[in-house]
Model the fold of this input.
Amino acid sequence: MDCCICTTMPFPLRPPRNTICGACYDGARNIIGLISKPAETDQKGTQDLNCSPFSPPNSCKKLDEVSILMLQMTKTMDEQTEAINFLKGFIAAFSEQIHTDILVKPGNDGPSIPAHKAILATRSEIFKNMLDSDECKTAPNGTITLPELNHEELKCLIEFLYSGSLTLEKLEKHGYSLLLAADKYEIPYLQKLCERHMHKSLSTSNALDFLEISSICSNKELMERSLSFIVKNFHFIAFLPKYDEFVHKNPHLALQVTREFLKSKGKTN
Ligand SMILES: [Zn+2]
Done:
């Protein structure tokens, strides 16, 4: 149907303004619904992303008010960018080693990395306890060791603690180690970042790894997603050479996969 909104015709040839196609009608209704809905908070205290966090409840109910809302959002984003730029001073203190007061040592005798106790302690309760403990106070030069990380992984982790961000390249390269570190040292935001990346990148080549790591970290959501993905693609994954290795290493998970697969077959047959 000709539509006065999405038509490509020049203005004089456009259909009358009351002719609107289904897609434009639904889109307009969705936008109004989205901007009029109050920001909801779920049980975990996180904001529902389907709602606009920028507008007060029921403040905007017509499409012509969207531009006002967009301006408010842009202003808020600019202010947040300013705050982020201000906080970037921390990463400069790390990279330029300004007044560092602790050495963090990786496993395998890799070189230590100078850092700031205050940053480590504020980002992780476990680090705080480690730094408070007598063992750390008596360690030479005030050193703490994270034996499960190599030098490169440790540098990534510490950079994250200062900056709160990770490049895609680093997430792809060190995602597993960082998720394990986030779990061990109780760094929920890092955990969330790694999980988001894993959810997005779940594929037949990594689903078994994700299932294994989710089991180690007792990460229920990642486990459910990867398990369901493996079950859906089991006809392919079961014949991958890495599945043999997975079964030997994780017999309990392999058993779970088999049971879920059979359950799914039971549902469809
Ligand atoms: Zn249209």
